[in-house]
Design a protein that fits this description.
The protein has 83 residues and is mostly helical. The protein has three helices and no strands. The longest helix is centred in the middle third of the chain and has 33 residues.
């Protein structure tokens, strides 16, 4: 059994959501495009991941040359183990 929502309740909810959208747009900035920001953020994350992957390859090679573990290289260089 579905409860029916009154027209007045629906209109009130729509008004609340529109006010929230306006508040968030004001917080973001009127001239800012959220999709553009997200696209740029994703691009930066890809660049970060590529750099991190390259660094991990180099750390792995260094560990191999020193005949030790990657974990030990991280410890020796005071690098974080996780992200």
């Amino acid at each position: 059994m579905h409860a029916r929502v009154s027209q007045q309740t629906q209109e009130a909810r729509i008004s609340e959501l529109q006010a929230e959208v306006e508040r968030l747009q004001a917080e973001l900035g009127q001239d800012e495009d959220a999709e553009k920001i997200v696209h740029n953020h994703i691009k930066l994350l890809h660049q970060y991941n590529e750099a991190k992957d390259a660094a991990q390859i180099l750390i792995g090679r260094l560990a191999n040359l020193r005949e030790t573990t990657v974990r030990q290289i991280h410890k020796d260089l005071e690098l974080p183990i996780g992200d």
